[in-house]
Amino acid sequence: MVPRPALLPGAPSLPRVIEPHIRRAEPRDGDAMYRLELASIHSAWREYYDGTQIQAWCQALHPTYRRDAQSVRELLVAEQEGRVVAFGQLHPRRARIEALYAAPGHMRRGLGQSLLRCLERTAWNLGMEALDVTASLCAVPFYRAAGYVEQGPWDFEFGEVRVPALLMKKHRPSPHPLPFRRSPWT
Ligand SMILES: CC(C)(COP(=O)(O)OP(=O)(O)OC[C@H]1O[C@@H](n2cnc3c(N)ncnc32)[C@H](O)[C@@H]1OP(=O)(O)O)[C@@H](O)C(=O)NCCC(=O)NCCS
Description:
Blueprint (H helix, E strand, L loop, with lengths): L20 E4 L5 H15 L6 H10 L4 H5 L4 E7 L2 E9 L4 E7 L8 H15 L4 E7 L3 H6 L3 E10 L2 E11 L15
Bound molecules: coenzyme A.
């Protein structure tokens, strides 16, 4: 029997990966990211999209796309025992999270959240006021839990094939006000 992804609504969380090893992607990670992306989609999307939609999306992915993206995007990978098990991509000029994928068997362990936090930190440090993402239907609960709010439907079209997604947005959190302290001299 094919194991059910830990992504389904109501699926329990799995033990967290404590302090995952996150680093900037390098050109040598391009193949691993491409394979991970395909595997992640085939595993997680099948409850939300049909075979034609998944096939259309995967065919549009180019094996060298993630490798080439590194020059203008912030691309981070999470590694476990020397293997890339998740990655995330921020486009700084568009203020957009462009990709976030965890490998099958590594979902719901906090890797997506850790990568997203790192990408958001970069975005807020660069002075962005908000970030958006076109979330696949299976990733909506994840982004909602991270504070992103639905803005409306956003469909991708591959010829006749439509792949529905949702545009979501998160505003830069305001810094916590300093706690009021009474002066010890008054
Ligand atoms: C979306 C994705 C990147 C999330 O990464 P992840 O490592 O599985 O998610 P995390 O473990 O960090 O989840 C953090 C929190 O998000 C929420 N969450 C994540 N998945 C959820 C789900 N299916 N249902 C409800 N809440 C969910 C939970 O609050 C979770 O915390 P918890 O496990 O303590 O309850 C990953 O599931 C994935 O690769 N999906 C397939 C590819 C994809 O569609 N990517 C998005 C493209 S826009």
